[in-house]
Design a protein that fits this description.
One of its GO terms (biological process) is heme biosynthetic process. This protein is α/β, with parallel strands linked by helices. The chain is 34% helix and 23% strand. The protein has a five-stranded mixed β-sheet, with helices on both faces. Strands 7-6-8-5-9 form a five-stranded mixed β-sheet, with helices on both faces.
Length: 313
């Protein structure tokens, strides 16, 4: 295409890295582009917890507005930040190959690692920082004797706050730190923690009916990542959950088989419902919905309702 594509992105280091990756992949296909930096509401307010802001789409709506107003041609998002229902007039154009989906614990450099995190008598006052209700719920489910501190901001801001704190550590997405070369050597992979739906994936969106732009973006699409993240998003949407609901999901493709795992917890971690489904890839359409229905039959709707009532009270 002859058109110079305007790529909209948040102005954080990680967001610009992701947009630059998109720019490089477009260039490989002979498509010229430029970056347009836009600051989101989520970047401006670093104090209010996300669940009080009304987090659904907080990191995407400013870019979506710029897209609908024709200030940009495509927008690049961390896919886990994208609402399950996109803004009217905007469509998914590509999902890039997924990086690590894992969460990691980054200990504060000023703290020695406890010998046993599960021992309540040894570290009853251990404090872990995160701004994610999902990470908080899963951590408290595993370590109910620990304390959780709210942590907001982009990756660089959160690392700085951690270094200045007396917390034991903070939880980050591995992909975010790895992409900009900031993953510390002492980071601990939390293999037991299920990620947010589509964590580690990058999504590109464009305006509906702009087929030339959509076709250009489709050249970057990774079919496996697109399949797995769609299953995870179906699970989230079917549970009527958003970014403030402690819902986790992971779909993996191996030997023509899709393995899906998902869970939902109460914010304090005391309630947990989980499911696992394994099917041949040709039968994988709709398994996110099937898995969600399994949890709804077990009472997941009551957890979601309680969270909504607490949020609006």
């Amino acid at each position: 295409m002859n058109k110079l594509l305007r790529i909209g992105t948040r102005d954080s280091q990680l967001a610009v890295w992701q947009a630059t990756l998109v720019q490089e992949q477009l260039k490989q296909h002979g498509i010229a582009s430029e970056l347009v930096l836009v600051k989101s509401d989520g970047d401006l307010d670093l104090v209010t917890p996300l669940y009080e802001i009304g987090v659904q789409g907080i990191f995407t709506k400013t870019l979506d507005t710029a897209l609908l107003n024709n200030r940009i041609d495509i927008a690049v998002h961390s896919m886990k930040d994208v609402p399950t229902q996109p803004a009217k007039g905007i469509v998914q154009a590509a999902v890039l190959k997924r990086a690590s989906y894992k969460d990691i614990l980054v200990p504060s450099s000023s703290r020695a690692q406890p010998r046993d995190l599960t021992d309540p008598s040894a570290d009853a006052l251990l404090t872990i920082a995160t701004g994610s209700t999902r990470r908080k719920a899963q951590w408290l489910n595993r370590y109910p004797h620990h304390r959780i501190e709210s942590l907001r901001g982009n990756v660089n801001t959160r690392l700085r706050k951690l270094a200045e704190s007396d917390w034991y550590g903070a939880i980050f997405a591995a992909a975010g730190l790895e992409r900009i070369g900031l993953r510390p050597d002492n980071a601990i992979e939390l293999d037991w923690m299920l990620p947010a739906p589509s964590q580690g994936a990058i999504m590109v969106v464009c305006r509906e009916h702009e087929h030339t732009v959509a076709d250009a973006c489709a050249l970057m699409n990774d079919a496996t990542t697109a399949l797995c993240t769609q299953i995870e998003k179906d699970f989230l949407r079917s549970l009527f959950g958003g970014c403030t609901t402690p819902i986790s999901a992971l779909a993996e493709l191996s030997n023509d088989t899709v393995l899906f795992r998902g869970n939902i917890l109460s914010p304090d971690g005391t309630q947990k419902l989980e499911t696992a489904v394994q099917v041949p890839v040709q039968e994988s359409k709709g398994i996110g919905i099937t898995a969600a229905n399994q949890l709804l039959e077990q009472g997941a709707g009551e957890i979601v309702a309680a969270i909504r009532n607490a949020t609006h009270s």
